[in-house]
Amino acid sequence: MAGHDNDLAAITAVAGRLARAERLLVITGAGMSADSGLPTYRGVGGLYNDGGTDDGIPIEMALSGGMYAQRPALTWKYISQIEQACRGARPNAGHQVLARLEKGGRQVTIVTQNVDGFHGQAGSGDVIEMHGNLHQLRCPACNHREQVPDFADLAIPPVCPACDGMLRPRVVLFDEMLPDIAVARYEQALAQGPDMVMSIGTTAVFPYIAEPIRQAVREGIPTVDINPVASPLSRAVDHHLAMPAAAALTAIELALATSGLGETAT
Ligand SMILES: [Zn+2]
């Protein structure tokens, strides 16, 4: 099959580039966690195939900052449904490969749109969660913070143990701004000058995702897009692997190990 030959050639080429990379920037989206069984449409809305909710409003509206300001209990209802659908899911082989690439001695900075916390759980040390983390709760009134493994023991909406206010998950809702700290860390990572950029499972519709990749292309820095579906971005990069994230990363790691270029340069 010609398609498989092409994939193999691309995987070998990516592994060769990776063997020489010292500062890898990885941008991950919903497709990264698809192999863990998480819904991919914007990471959350995949549970609502017709786009509607049983409250008769679009899921994007139910999960918006504007709705949370007016009817937080309604937003919480859908956040907790999503959490329940994802409960028990674990980091997949792709997350593990990225963690091992870092342990192999190179700098691996991960910028993720996902709120599942899987990169950190898999052992990656330099993770920028652009949209926050579903399992980190914060009280806007008194700044009490806590981390929960899941929402199983949580009253919905949860009450702050310190001031009886309402806790909210530290996630970026639709129509909300990206957190300043995440943006600053992302800009710092870009300023350090990655020598290879990978986009995994993201459709890169947001300029803050797409632009750094296009910038890398312009500067001649090796670029890779791993996504079963082709996008304008995948046509712009050096290598597009039309594969699921876990399969592609596992194949790249294998090629890296068997090419003699492997993880010896620690
Ligand atoms: Zn409080």
From TrEMBL:
It comes from the Bacteria. The keyword Metal-binding applies. Keywords: Acyltransferase, Metal-binding, NAD, Transferase, Zinc. Pfam families: SIR2 (PF02146). Zn(2+) binds at residues 139, 142, 160, 163. Residues 1-264 form the Deacetylase sirtuin-type domain. GO terms for molecular function: NAD-dependent protein lysine deacetylase activity. InterPro entries: DHS-like_NAD/FAD-binding_dom, NAD-dep_sirtuin_deacylases, Sirtuin, Sirtuin_cat_small_dom_sf, Ssirtuin_cat_dom. Its EC number is 2.3.1.286. The active site is at 131 (proton acceptor). NCBIfam families: PRK00481.1-3. This is protein acetyllysine N-acetyltransferase.
